[in-house]
Amino acid sequence: MSEVCVKVALRVRPLLPLEVLQNHKVCLRIVPDSNKVTVGSDRLFSFDHAFGPTATQDEVYDSCVQPLVETLLRGDNATVFCFGQTGSGKTYTIGGGNLGEEGGIIDRVAENVFSLLGEKNSDGVETKVRVTYLELYMEQLQDLLESHNTDKELFISKNNKGNTVVVGAKEIVVTSAEELLSVVEAGNVLRHIKTTGMNEHSSRSHTILTLQVVQAFPHNNPSLKPSCSSKLCLVDLAGSECARKRNKDSRHNESAHINRGLLALGNVIRVLATRAQNNCKIPHIPYRDSKITRLLQDSLGGTAHTLMVACVSPSHHSVAETVGVLQCADKARHIRNCPTATSTH
Ligand code: ADP
Ligand code: MG
């Protein structure tokens, strides 16, 4: 099976009204008609896609996410994850619970998946969509679909095909875009209720929404396998600055600011990129250092088709963080995944 690289889309959000009032300067620009971005006067990065402050949610979806939905319905696994510092536009980009113009990736995926499945249904394909919604905070997995029974243990494990699964996660069957989005909204409400200090919390937690699509094909077409199952993971990561040490903090506070998951994620990306660039065998990829890297194992160096959306603010105040995100995103582009068509059973 041929390899595919992890694709990276850069998204630069507009300056926010308060930033304009406070006279923030724009420190990065997309080179017109290209997928390149310049930071300051001397740094240039290229990506698979680059979206500037005026890019719409539709443009982002149509050019880089829609193809992954087609991949999903062909029976392959796919992942989209948003990466970037707090306030860079990750949650705006991933969306959830808004079917209007401003709706993000989750909203558009919901509409797109069910409209394509509708077409399949009229061709006699039986389909089912199951959803799970999890949050990972301080290395603790929490089920956002479970309003009771909150101390249920969730385990990350592998299924018989070698794919990562979370054992114990509640699965809800959904039959329309609206139903899917109401499940997501209920999960988001739960996330807010269960936590105090919401801003701090949301900047340090990861959320993982997974859609599993099962298709059973009509018996009258012998060229098709009888059924297939594939999943799409939509991930909103914690703020990338959580992974950085802050020198001014005391030793104790410093450790509180380091998100172990994001450090581990950075390491996994670096090791996989080095392996691909030097075409060498590196036996140990440190997936097991954190739960987020275990959860993303299929997506980074595994069998999924993966898109990383690197979100950045244009403000000169965050230039150091922005360059850190661009460097990590640049490495991620080298990672090779090996999708398999063996999800058929
Ligand atoms: P993050 O999830 O990375 O912390 P948010 O998605 O919450 O960041 O975005 C921070 C703020 O910027 C929010 O007020 C959001 O509405 C706004 N924003 C982000 N991206 C865009 C965009 N592309 N266009 C307009 N506003 C945006
Ligand atoms: Mg957010």
Give a quick set of tags describing it.
binds magnesium ion; 3-stranded antiparallel beta sheet; Kinesin; binds adenosine-5'-diphosphate; globular; 10 helices; alpha/beta; 16 strands; disordered C terminus; 9-stranded mixed beta sheet; 345 residues
Task: Report on this structure.
With 345 residues, the protein is an alpha/beta fold. It has a single domain, classed as Kinesin motor domain (Kinesin, 3-Layer(aba) Sandwich). Helices cover 33% and strands 26% of the residues. Strands 2, 6, 7, 8, 9, 12, 13, 14 and 15 form a 9-stranded mixed β-sheet that branches. Strands 3-4-5 form a 3-stranded antiparallel β-sheet, with helices on one face. The longest helix is centred in the last third of the chain and has 19 residues, at 260-278. The chain is globular. The two termini are 18 Å apart. Adenosine-5'-diphosphate (ADP) is lined by residues 13-14, 16, 84, 86-92, 239, 311. The site of magnesium ion has 3 residues, from helix 3.
TL;DR?
The protein is of the alpha/beta class and 345 residues long. 33% of the residues lie in helices and 26% in strands.
Global morphology: globular
Bound small molecules, deduplicated: adenosine-5'-diphosphate, magnesium ion
Major sheet size, sense and barrel closure: 9 strands, mixed
CATH-level-2 architecture: 3-Layer(aba) Sandwich
What CATH calls the topology is Kinesin
Tell me the name of the CATH class. Alpha Beta
Oligomerization? single chain
